[in-house]
Amino acid sequence: MGNNGGASGDEHEAASNSRNQGNKAYHRHSNQQIHQLEKFFKECPHPDENQRRQLSRELGLEAKQIKFWFQNKRTQKKAQSERADNSVLRLENERIQCENLAIIEALKNVICPACGGPPFGEEERQRSLQKLKQENARLKEEHEKVSTLLTKYIGKSISQIDSLTPGAGSSHGVLTTNPGIDLERNPGLDNSQLVYKRRGILDMEKALMAETAASAADELVRLLRVNEPLWIKSPSDGRYILDRVGYEKLYPRDSHFKSSNARVESSKDSAMVIMPGMDLVDMFLDPQLEPGEWVIADISYDFMRDGSPSRAWRLPSGCMIQDKSNGCSKVTWVEHVEVDDRTQTHRLYRDLICGRSAYGAERWIASLRRICERLAFYKEETAAAREFGGVITSPEGRKSIVNLAHRMVKIFFASLGMSGKLDFPQLSEVHNSGVRVAIRKNTEQGQPIGMVVSAATSLWLPLSPQNVFNFFKDEKSRIQWDILSNSNPVHVISHISNGTNPGNCISITHPFIPTENNMLILQESCTDSSGSMVVYAPLDIPAMNMVIGGADSSIIPILPSGFVISGDGRPDTGGDSSTSTSSTGADSGGSLLTVAFQILVAGPNVTSSTELNMESVATVNTLISTTVLKIKAALNCSNLG
């Protein structure tokens, strides 16, 4: 079937409609409507039915009008592009014709020197010789630079590496190196020669990597120790950002991404953390700058220049650790990245991801403070004084519970990757992301063996992240959303603190279900300025007793579900969000809530995927959709789309 000159079915339908409605009155859109349509067209020139329906509601137009407007706009853009291409081609054709005429005229007057014609002029020969000398000096300088790097970091120079390669080396005193090896063009190279050749290439690559890392560390130390004039306060939120003009004068470099959507983000933050400097050094393996001070530097490096495309490129970033000799350390963090992810980011998360919150230094500092508190509380011998319930009586049992909760959280976040997913779209993409479902066959120890269905969805709520977190954290509210409690009240029988914030804790809950007396719920919740989470999983009483008794919790199968809460990245509008104290997006106009469930739908004896039909997937989809409706009703947000 031909493509009819590249026109799509929508364009043909638009042409047909225009012929059938030739005598009808035209409808002119308002300037506001045209502005909104133009703005949306720049981001998405081919909206689907849900997006057209959403635009029709927002602009007061019929869905058919929206459809025809986009069809006409695409046709107009295509015509403009074709006219521009034709103009360029005409100019190029005229230029080539002129060049051909000039070449023809020049050929008429050419005299070959080998046939007795005059040689090149002395002035021209001197210019050519001077150019060759400059190129030779540049190549020599490059060779000496790489040779110095190899000698410094590997202990041998290029000449030593090249001498290991049989048949390679110099010809008439000129060193020759080939960064790539083509077997078809080099049939004489055997396996041993290839090994030597690759070894030389890898040694050079290691030296360049070491030089890149050293330069990044030097730049990072300067960014960490200096505030003004390199760092200025953002007029929008008061956070430190790099002054681009001053920075690029000191460290000029080309942009890694050429897309018009690419952007550069920079941020700087510092805080005291409850951990001695040497313990943090053991975690990070940092180089020491001076007594009591260490630095860790990160930078992106395209090894051998053949890596897969990336949407983020890290410029010199990292942290400095300063030991304060009181059991604490001061950590200063710098994040500097170039990203091109706007078109890949869902509209629901675009303000958060593209608003300097996702890649900010504040997130690293907040997470590091919370983790250091968790480790400090984990090691503290008097931690039992902050627990209640009397269920956990030994330090071994407490550590076993903490380790099990930690593994539960890791499994939960690993499940959010969802390879081989199925999508159930929602009518509104403004407040919902749709339900995403994945099926996997688990064979790993520590999780139930068999077929597991994972489902997740994200939605926007007009409430502060702290209020949403408090709702899920409160055991009295659990009856309003948790299917495990079966609409029955629950009772917390044990509680372990993980930090100074009351929301950072591990709890064991017992639901009062008359028909089920053998189930407990293990839950871990945590919160900081970057966001919050509540992760939980059911466990039977015998398994919980084993863990409380201090047994190895790694053998206990667990399948967690939970919630992830963050700010929406939008500016505070003065509503409910005013109660938040976050500095990285939680004090925004609303919250982004991700709900994720995991359910074991078949045992280990399933031999083929045909035994698990779409009914199980539909059941999980219904389950998560019902839970979302309950959450909205409990939070008085049922009117959201």
Give a structural overview.
Residues 574-587 have a biased composition (Low complexity). It is found in: Nucleus. InterPro entries: HD, HD-Zip_IV, HD-Zip_IV_C, Homeobox_CS, Homeodomain-like_sf, START_lipid-bd_dom. This is HD-ZIP family protein. Residues 202-251, 252-377 form the START domain. The chain is an alpha+beta fold and 641 residues long. It has four domains: 32-107, Arc Repressor Mutant, subunit A (Orthogonal Bundle); 133-168 and 190-215, no CATH class; 226-302 and 310-372, no CATH class; 380-634, 2-Layer Sandwich (Alpha-D-Glucose-1,6-Bisphosphate, Chain A, domain 4). Helix content is 39%, strand content 21%. The protein contains 15 helices and 19 strands. It has helices spanning 9-20, 31-43, 49-59, 63-108, 122-153, 158-163, 191-225, 244-250, 277-284, 350-353, 361-379, 395-415, 465-473, 541-548, 614-634, and strands at residues 170-171, 174-175, 231-233, 240-242, 263-273, 288-290, 293-298, 312-314, 317-323, 329-339, 421-424, 432-442, 450-461, 490-497, 505-511, 519-528, 531-540, 561-567, 591-602. The strands form four sheets. The protein has a nine-stranded antiparallel sheet, sandwiched between helices. Helix 3 (49-59) crosses helix 4 (63-108) and helix 5 (122-153) crosses helix 7. The two termini are 41 Å apart. Mean pLDDT is 77; it is low at 1-9, 161-189, 193-197 and 574-587.
